[in-house]
Amino acid sequence: MKLNPLQWSLHWQILFSLALSGIVALFILPLTDPSFSTLVLQTAQFFGDLFMNALKMMVVPLIVTSMISGVMQLGTTTGIGAISFKTVLYYTFSGLLAVLLGIFLVNLIQPGRVDASVAQALLGEASQVTASSGLLDAVEGKDQSDLIDIFKRMLPTNVFKAATDNGQLLGVILFSILFGFFAGQLPDNMRAVQKQFWESFQAVILKLTEWIISFAPIGVFGLVLPMLYNAPIGDLIHTLFAFFITVFLGLLIHLLFVLGILLKLFARINPFTHLKAMLPVLLTAFSTASSSATLPLTMDVVKEKAKVSNKTCAFTLPLGATINMDGTALYECIVVLFISQLYASIGGVDLTLGQQGLVVFLALTTSIGVAGIPSASLVAISIILPAVGLPVEAIGVIWVTDRMLDMCRTSVNVYSDTVAAIIIDNSEGGSPYSQALEKPKLTA
């Protein structure tokens, strides 16, 4: 490995940045003067916010240009219908596998089976946290009827306003698909002009995206340092360790084994080859905790390293960043059953198989329906809890662990998007990963 970090591969630079942020946050800043620590944290937060804003700035232009040019390449209604069906089928199937894995693990480990006094203390503290932290404002008035909003968001009254609003990317995606399809139906001379315009526009956006991504190590350091410094690690270890491990184990199994098996079974790709190639994507998703913000890097890496065709990337990845939430669905299931187990520990009734089936269905649908809005998982959980007879106030019990687990589940969400692109491109006759990449050399 080269000694100069600036000459390392991107994933090594990001790993170095993560390790450095951990050392500074946990071992250096606690020993320094508080005023100096505050200055360091504010400076890091400034650069972290700049990086996040730059990534988010690229999301809408990247989605619009990629999807329009991609759909124009698909050409016919048959082509669009086939890839749409495969994409939705994969996202539904992988999400269902994640939910079932979460249900299995939480019933096996049973992290909420504790002494009645411990459960009572946790639930009592949860109510206070929910009230004091603003959680109740975020989830107030949410119920199953909010799932209908997913269809409303697909057809916004103002597509330009939708592009600037959180949770409205579905409308932008649908508009781009329709625009690309009808642009592909124009006469040859007009279609050629449209095709050249959108492909050149996309090329400019990709170049700009690559430039922004080159600053990822600095942005990652700025994002992770304040989070680690302020993380209530002591509380996590003493009260919610079993819950944290249950979720983390589920996410790890889904990423390494479930998605790995799908990759090997349907695309005949070595899962570890793909995992190594996607390391920059995983690390950025972990740092930003945002599928949408990671989308520019995801598209760049999947096309450049995995050799997936532009038309497949342009269709599957923006859609996946909006609706494919394997990690989120798994998390929702475990949270609801964990809270149920806490109530059962103080004399409540366990959820029946039928109620657990309802949790599976709602976790799968809400992970799609509310994924694009702030506090998405909290809103989804607040919809599921009343549906199975549990109070919304209990959501505060997971507040301590939510940020760290959000980073983990976002990595799984994004990785599942990349697996989808590989599988679907393979089914369309593409050849993801050239022979040269099947056994990549370890470079830095």
Order of helices and strands: HHHHHHHHHHHHHHHHHHHHH
CATH structural class: Mainly Alpha
What structural class do helix, strand and pairing data support? mainly alpha
Measured by DSSP, the beta-strand proportion falls in under 5%
Radius of gyration, whole Å:
22 Å
Globular, elongated, flat, extended or rod-shaped: what is the shape?
globular
Q: In the CATH hierarchy, what is the architecture at level 2?
A: Orthogonal Bundle
CATH superfamily heading: Sodium:dicarboxylate symporter
Q: Count of DSSP helices?
A: 21
Cα(first) to Cα(last) distance is 5 Å
Number of strands: 0
Largest sheet geometry: none
Count of folded domains: 1
Low-confidence stretches: 435-444
Mean pLDDT: 83
Helical proportion, percent range: over 70%
Query: What would the CATH topology be?
Result: Proton glutamate symport protein
Structure commentary:
This protein has 444 residues and is mainly α. It has one domain (5-438): Proton glutamate symport protein. It has 21 helices and no strands. The protein is globular. The model is unreliable at 435-444 (pLDDT under 50).
Characteristic key phrases:
single chain, 444 residues, Proton glutamate symport protein, 77% helix, disordered C terminus
Quick description:
The protein is mainly α and 444 residues long. It has helices spanning 10-28, 34-74, 77-109, 116-132, 135-139, 149-154, 159-164, 169-183, 188-213, 216-230, 233-239, 241-267, 271-277, 279-288, 291-304, 310-323, 326-345, 353-369, 376-387, 399-427, 435-438.
